[in-house]
Specification:
This protein has 150 residues and is of the alpha+beta class. The chain has five helices and six strands; from the N terminus they run αββααααββββ. It starts with a helix and ends with a strand.
Length: 150
């Protein structure tokens, strides 16, 4: 079975990762790395007083970046002698804030697998980051990646 056939056979299939707790330490570390120390993320007392969230929330980009972790944990491994390359996003929407202390997980549905050129398959994953106990996900995205055969 060709590399393209392996992926087209999985179109429409969904996988979900395990839950991950977004704690204040993770949010603070992300703030340090990105230099985004807005109080809604890093000052629990002020965030409780001055925001409608009742406390601090994770950065949207932290939530988005967790897709890499969730994908590595939930998606099948790339075929031998192939690598995956992040190609970007066609769409990203932040739908609901992730309150510090919440548990989140990633859900991925393969929407497309197209050969760009021999040995390169472009994948489009419909992704969401779900918040435990919430009907609205934290985010929804169309994530593009390339599988390059070695």
């Amino acid at each position: 079975m060709s590399l393209l056939e392996q992926y087209t056979a999985r179109i429409g299939q969904s996988v979900t990762s395990d839950w991950l707790t977004v704690d204040q330490d993770r949010v603070n570390q992300f703030a340090d790395v990105t230099l985004d120390h807005q109080f809604i993320h890093v000052d629990p007392e002020r965030a409780a007083r001055e925001t409608p969230f009742g406390g601090p929330i994770a950065h949207g980009f932290l939530t988005l970046s967790l897709l890499s972790h969730f994908a590595a944990a939930a998606l099948p491994a790339f075929p031998e002698k192939a690598i995956g390359i992040n190609y970007g996003f066609d769409k990203v929407r932040f739908l609901s804030p992730v309150r510090v202390g919440s548990r989140v997980r990633g859900k991925f549905t393969l929407a497309k697998a197209e050969e760009r050129k021999p040995g390169q398959i472009q994948l489009t994953q419909e992704c969401s980051v779900e918040i435990e106990g919430s009907d609205t996900p934290a985010l929804a995205a169309q994530w593009l990646s390339l599988v390059v055969a070695g």
